[in-house]
């Protein structure tokens, strides 16, 4: 850890360590006469204090984040301490008879305060006010006991020495009192932290050496045995070294982590004040009959320690009471969270099942009916995808409020999961009551939600289960309502459905389909079919990639069946990404075989909502080495209208790079012509429902013909191409040809084909097209060579 410190700081620390070591060596071995010894001892000790100041100044200059205040305290302490030592050395070496007290003593006392502030700043750890008071009392109790012993041993003799002036005695007593102050800070840091960090341990140890040195100095001075060069001088020198290294380590120490308190540490903290009190009483028992100043001070000191212990107990009882109240509140909060949804504050699934179980039991006793409404939101995922999860959370809270305000007072509303809710209706007056409540809830949810100025709509699908008609217990009742809801989802959504036995079979089939669909990609069960796109001359200009799924047990599953399930499960995004990559790869492979055409891929709303969708497109094109203009993305008209802002940004990014954008199923959605001007759209696909009506000459057919002709004219005026899909008869082909459509697609040309079948079909189609083209050219030439009024048939 120290190795990562700056080189200049390491040099200063090394010099500080060497100077303290040399000073200690001289104190042990000594050399020179008494005068030389005094000079060497004082000047060498002053060198140690000066090097300590240099180290602290370097640390402060670096201004480590979070430690600047601590280093400021420490720098002030080092400056004042060096000043005090300088004054003392001057008085002892130059004046020869230093006065007592002197300026040095005042500087020493100030250094004590600054040293205490530096230690507190380095060993900081915020605590509750009550805990801080208790720990402060613990420190004062221990310090009080130490003070009692110090008073009895020698402080009382210093205070009562008649041969010294009052000021001298007060200054002499001030040193151990300041040491007791430092000891209290040291104990407070140890008690409150329980496990000091490395730099705190070093600084505390250095502080402890300073305290011990001061106490020994006071005692030796009292006994008249102290002189410059005493071995206790090494304690002060080494306190400088250890505090300097501790401050340096603070630069590289990790922030204080919350640590558990071990049993041994906790017991030591709790026992310390009581052991201190017992030691004071033990001393008191020894001297209680004495009538000296020392004995009297010990008596009053023990009384003070006892009072502090009593105050500590009161504080501890108050703190424990507060902790018990906090714990009770916490337990109540945990119990509430265990049974409630954190976002909407509604009961959760666990709470609902408890309420439902109680409601079934009450209904059994009363002979009444109850119902469960299983509510699943329609289109909620689109809010999260387009507006963000914060907007989704706001919507869920508003939905919860609407549900609560539109159910009877005796009903229970719960949130089961992300966008699923449930309502329990006890004491039904009739079996139609839950349906009426469901329709009221649908109407309430149909009202738009305003999110950051944007109006969004969220519908719902509601299934209803009634006890005892549809279930025998609470679990089965909820499952019945769930099955009814799934039926609504599968048949257009946004409705209320009562449970029937047939619906459960549909729900189980849906669940089996969901389970099978989740692993379809991993099991290589999905593949692509390609349906040709031809111009009016019959030339193949493109192909639409259509996903197919063949399950080992379910067999071929219709896209109309599994695509909605994939959208509900969120699987449409990975499916769509796979389709994009595979279609681009196949188009690139066909280009190598001479079949140059554009490939069309359907894009879901969930894909366009992904922020990285353009990146997915570029990655698929780059991987296949396919030009952007060879890719055509088909999006629905509804997506463009409802998610205009989100969609516009994505489409503009893709369109600028050459990707073609086509509106699929045009004319059956929420038509809005403004987006045709705003977005980089290259073509429209007229929905097959219009094409299939172009069969006869009835009024409805003529109306459809006018619509198709209007759409075609509008598209051409905007420079857009028009595709007629769903061509199944020759008559339909001729009609869309006459109406001006540019491209054709449908089973009349070819159904969706595997890649190999598509290649075979294309070759055969090209041969047939060339034959028809050659035959048409021959007939044209023959007609040109005949005399006027003759036909080919007549010439034969």
Task: Describe the 3D structure.
With 796 residues, this protein is α/β, with parallel strands linked by helices. It is built from 28 helices and 16 strands. Strands 8-9-11-12-13-14-15-16 form an 8-stranded mixed beta barrel, surrounded by 4 helices. Strands 2-3-1-6-7 form a 5-stranded mixed β-sheet, sandwiched between helices. A two-stranded antiparallel sheet has the order 4-5. Strand 9 (540-551) and strand 10 (555-557) form a beta hairpin. Helix 1 (7-29) runs antiparallel to helix 2 (34-62), helix 5 packs parallel to helix 9 (263-287) and helix 6 runs antiparallel to helix 7. The model is unreliable at 254-267 and 788-796 (pLDDT under 50). Residues 368-501 form the GGDEF domain. Residues 510-766 form the EAL domain. Keywords: Membrane, Transmembrane, Transmembrane helix. The chain crosses the membrane at residues 43-60, 72-94, 106-123, 135-154, 166-189, 201-222, 263-285, 297-315.
């Amino acid at each position: 850890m120290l190795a990562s410190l700056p080189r200049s700081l390491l040099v200063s620390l090394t010099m500080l360590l060497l100077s303290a070591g040399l000073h200690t060596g001289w104190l042990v071995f000594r050399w020179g006469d008494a005068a030389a010894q005094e000079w060497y001892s004082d000047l060498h000790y002053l060198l140690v204090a000066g090097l300590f100041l240099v180290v602290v100044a370097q640390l402060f200059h670096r201004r480590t984040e979070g430690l600047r205040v601590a280093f400021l305290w420490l720098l002030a302490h080092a400056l004042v301490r060096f000043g005090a030592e300088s004054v003392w050395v001057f008085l002892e070496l130059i004046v020869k008879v230093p006065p007592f007290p002197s300026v040095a003593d005042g500087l020493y006392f100030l250094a004590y305060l600054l040293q205490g502030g530096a230690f507190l700043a380095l060993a900081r750890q915020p605590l509750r006010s009550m805990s801080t008071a208790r720990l402060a009392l613990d420190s004062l109790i221990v310090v009080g006991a130490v003070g009692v012993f110090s008073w009895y041993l020698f402080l009382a003799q210093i205070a009562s020495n008649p041969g010294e002036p009052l000021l001298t005695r007060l200054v002499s007593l001030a040193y151990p009192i300041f040491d007791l102050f430092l000891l209290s800070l040291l104990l407070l840091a140890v008690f409150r932290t329980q496990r000091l960090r490395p730099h705190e341990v070093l600084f505390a140890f250095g502080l402890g050496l300073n305290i011990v040195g001061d106490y020994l100095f006071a005692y030796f001075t009292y006994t008249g045995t102290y002189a410059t060069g005493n071995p206790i001088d090494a304690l002060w020198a080494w306190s400088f070294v250890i505090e300097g290294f501790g401050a340096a380590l603070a630069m590289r120490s990790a922030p204080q982590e919350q640590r558990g308190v071990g049993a041994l540490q906790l017991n030591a903290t709790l026992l310390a004040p009581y052991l201190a009190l017992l030691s004071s009483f033990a001393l008191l028992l020894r001297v209680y009959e004495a009538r000296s100043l020392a004995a009297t001070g010990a008596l009053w000191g023990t009384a003070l320690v006892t009072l502090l212990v009593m105050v500590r107990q009161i504080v501890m009882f108050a703190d424990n009471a507060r902790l018990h109240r906090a714990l009770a509140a916490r337990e109540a909060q945990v119990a509430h969270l265990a049974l409630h949804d954190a976002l909407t504050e509604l009961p959760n699934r666990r709470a609902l099942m408890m309420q439902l179980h109680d409601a079934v039991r009450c209904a059994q006793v009363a002979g009444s009916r109850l119902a469960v409404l299983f509510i699943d939101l329609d289109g909620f995922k689109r809010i999260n995808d387009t507006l963000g999860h914060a907007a989704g959370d706001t919507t869920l809270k508003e939905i919860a409020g609407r549900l609560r305000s539109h159910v009877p007072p005796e009903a229970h509303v719960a949130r089961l999961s992300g966008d699923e809710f449930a309502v329990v209706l006890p004491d039904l007056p009739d079996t139609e009551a839950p349906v009426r409540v469901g329709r009221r809830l649908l109407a309430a949810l149909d009202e738009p939600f305003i999110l950051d100025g944007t109006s969004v709509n969220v519908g719902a699908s509601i299934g209803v289960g009634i006890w005892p008609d549809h279930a025998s217990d609470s679990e089965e009742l909820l499952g019945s309502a769930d099955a009814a809801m799934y039926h609504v989802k599968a048949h257009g959504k946004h409705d209320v459905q009562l449970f029937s036995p047939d619906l459960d079979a549909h729900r189980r089939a849906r669940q089996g389909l969901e389970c099978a669909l989740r692993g379809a990609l991993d099991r290589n069960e999905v593949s692509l079919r390609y349906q040709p796109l031809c111009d009016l001359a019959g030339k193949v200009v493109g192909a639409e990639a259509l996903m197919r799924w063949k399950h080992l047990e379910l067999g071929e599953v219709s896209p109309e069946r599994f695509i909605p399930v994939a959208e509900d499960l969120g699987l449409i995004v990975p499916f769509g990404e796979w389709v994009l990559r595979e279609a681009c790869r196949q188009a690139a492979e066909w280009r190598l075989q001479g079949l140059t055409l554009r490939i069309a891929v359907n894009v879901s709303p969930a894909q366009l909502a992904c922020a990285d969708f353009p990146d997915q497109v570029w990655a698929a094109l780059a991987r296949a080495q396919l030009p952007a203009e060879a890719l055509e993305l088909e999006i629905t008209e509804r997506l463009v209208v409802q998610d205009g802002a989100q969609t516009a940004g994505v489409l503009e990014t893709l369109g600028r790079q050459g990707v073609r954008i086509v509106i699929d199923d045009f004319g059956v959605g929420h038509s809005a012509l403004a987006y045709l001007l705003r977005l980089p759209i290259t073509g429209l696909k007229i929905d097959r429902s219009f094409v299939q009506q172009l069969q006869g000459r009835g009024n409805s057919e003529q109306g459809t013909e006018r619509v198709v002709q209007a759409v075609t004219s509008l598209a051409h005026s905007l420079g857009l191409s028009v595709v007629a899909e769903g061509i199944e008869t020759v008559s339909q082909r001729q009609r869309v040809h006459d109406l001006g459509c540019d491209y054709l697609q449908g089973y009349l040309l070819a159904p969706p084909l595997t890649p190999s079948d598509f290649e075979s079909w294309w070759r055969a189609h090209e041969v047939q097209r060339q034959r028809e083209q050659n035959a048409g050219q021959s007939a044209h030439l023959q007609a040109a060579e005949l005399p006027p009024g003759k036909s080919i048939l007549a010439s034969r």
